[in-house]
Specification:
Strand content: over 45%
Structural class: mainly beta
Oligomer: single chain
Number of strands: 11
Number of helices: 2
Order of helices and strands: HEEEEEEHEEEEE
Low-confidence stretches: 2-18
CATH architecture: Beta Barrel
Shape: elongated
Strand order of the largest sheet: 1-4-5-7-8-9-10-11
CATH class: Mainly Beta
Radius of gyration: 20 Å
Number of domains: 1
Length: 189
Amino acid sequence: MKKALLLASLIAVTGLAQAEAANYAIDPTHTYATFEMRHFGTSTNRGRFDKKEGTVQLDKAAKTGKVEITINMDSINTGFSKFDGHLKSAEIFDAAKFPTAKFVSTKFNFTGDKVSSIDGELTLKGKTAPVTLKADNFNCYENPMLKREVCGGDFETTFDRTQFGADYGVAYGFPKDVKVVIQVEAIKQ
């Protein structure tokens, strides 16, 4: 009898923890994906991706989550159309052949009740490699206009672009590292 009650209690607790998981949709009006690459060790080239979408699943009680973000590579915007065209070309991102980049999480890491980082895999130019997005300013709040919970924060990572086959300029002395910064807000569904 005690074993049956213990088993029933465990099932109930597990069910409650799973019931607290919430689904969120990325708010494109409050989500920005930008990148930075050094240029010959002097200035920094910057750009953003104007089209992105994704979903987040967050269970604050269980301290788990899932995220999937897709970025349209043809939406790159540096403010200079000729440079945008070069970045989209086969020499760099090859947006015609690989129209999207995708980040899929493998693990959410928490410090206390706040997301501190997200481990995952980035797929770019058809190649996938692990990356960790470090979280800053993560928060959830009740949006007074939407009357729904919104969660988000600032996330960043730096990776070696050559692991994705984006080797252009390395022979000329361009650094391999690319810094990606994502400010994201996601609305509870």
